[in-house]
């Protein structure tokens, strides 16, 4: 991939100003990729945390959420095709789904390339499954209408950030209803009264996402990288770059599928020839067009090789 230079940090907002229009209300359910069980506690989720596309999409209704655990949280990141959602696993205390929603709205992502889709000023007071739906209650009416400066596409992306996050924490693809103390059922002006489903993964999620290594991880000179992707012919190229942006290692992983959803991938990364220090691991989508089509999507993680 010598023909392609990847901006490792801070894609400019001008380059991604054209946001992707997301499918929000009454979207078809997507059962091809669920997140790990919310109650599972892991400081560094491994490749085994990646779900099989054939796994069930909902936990038993009688199963109570764990009191503490690691949950998937969906943040916004920039791509060559506009802002999309990236998943990060975060440890929360208390009720996992509420903790996940709060983390999506006000948490600081571990990866500095990500950001919350939510403006300041609001919050969530509860998340519960009721009659086949997920009901999220806000602390006040601050997020009922779309605030000044937030575009339609940004509002839609924020709604999907919440939908994917609470669905992942509860291990269900139930539609989401947002209610305010004043009785409104809109979130940033988007009506949720009939339930909002998760939009198509290929329209709203980054097409490649690194689960392990995590941002800032210390890794041995040989480690297993993992994540999810939807990349041409299931090929997920990866690179390791040093502080001068020079490629010092490269290879590829093969995902479990492609085209219709994001699928798990993992690969062994051998850096035994490198000196100890700080590097950047990059996973990306394959570009069979040689730069003629849409730009590849990528996810980067800064690592320290011991």
UniProtKB/TrEMBL annotation:
Domain GerMN residue range list: 72-178
Disordered as annotated region, ranges: 32-74, 285-306
Pfam families assigned to the protein according to its UniProt record, in alphabetical order: Germane, Gmad2
Signal sequence, renumbered to the chain: none
Regions of compositional bias (Low complexity) in chain numbering: 50-60
InterPro entries: GerMN (IPR019606), Gmad2_Ig-like_dom (IPR018911)
All copies of domain Bacterial spore germination immunoglobulin-like, residue ranges: 208-292
Descriptive protein name: Unannotated protein
Species this protein is from: freshwater metagenome
């Amino acid at each position: 991939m010598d023909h392609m230079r990847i901006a490792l940090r801070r894609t400019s907002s001008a380059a991604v100003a054209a946001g992707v229009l997301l499918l929000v209300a009454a979207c078809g359910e997507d059962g091809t990729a669920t997140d790990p069980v919310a109650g599972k506690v892991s400081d560094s989720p491994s490749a085994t945390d990646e779900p099989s596309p054939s796994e069930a999409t909902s936990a038993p209704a009688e199963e109570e959420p764990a009191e503490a655990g690691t949950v998937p949280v969906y943040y916004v990141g920039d791509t060559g095709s506009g802002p999309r959602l990236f998943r990060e696993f975060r440890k929360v205390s208390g009720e996992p789904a509420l903790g996940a929603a709060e983390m999506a709205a006000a948490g600081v992502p571990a990866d500095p390339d990500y950001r919350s889709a939510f403006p300041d000023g609001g919050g969530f007071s509860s998340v519960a499954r009721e009659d086949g739906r997920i009901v999220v209650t806000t602390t006040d009416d601050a997020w009922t209408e779309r605030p000044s400066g937030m575009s339609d596409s940004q509002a839609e992306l924020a709604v999907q950030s919440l939908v994917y996050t609470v669905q992942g924490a509860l291990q269900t693809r139930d539609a989401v209803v947002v209610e305010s103390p004043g009785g409104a059922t809109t979130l940033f002006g988007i009506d949720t009264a009939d339930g909002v489903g998760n939009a198509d993964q290929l329209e709203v999620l980054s097409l490649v996402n690194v689960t392990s290594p995590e941002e800032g991880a210390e890794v041995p000179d040989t480690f297993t990288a993992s994540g999810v992707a939807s990349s041409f012919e299931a090929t997920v190229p990866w690179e390791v770059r040093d502080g001068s942006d020079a490629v010092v290692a490269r290879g590829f992983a093969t995902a479990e599928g492609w085209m219709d959803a994001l699928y798990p991938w993992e690969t062994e990364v051998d850096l035994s020839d490198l000196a100890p220090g700080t590097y950047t691991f990059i996973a990306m989508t394959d570009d069979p067009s040689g730069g003629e089509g849409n730009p590849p999507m990528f996810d980067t993680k800064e690592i320290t090789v011991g």
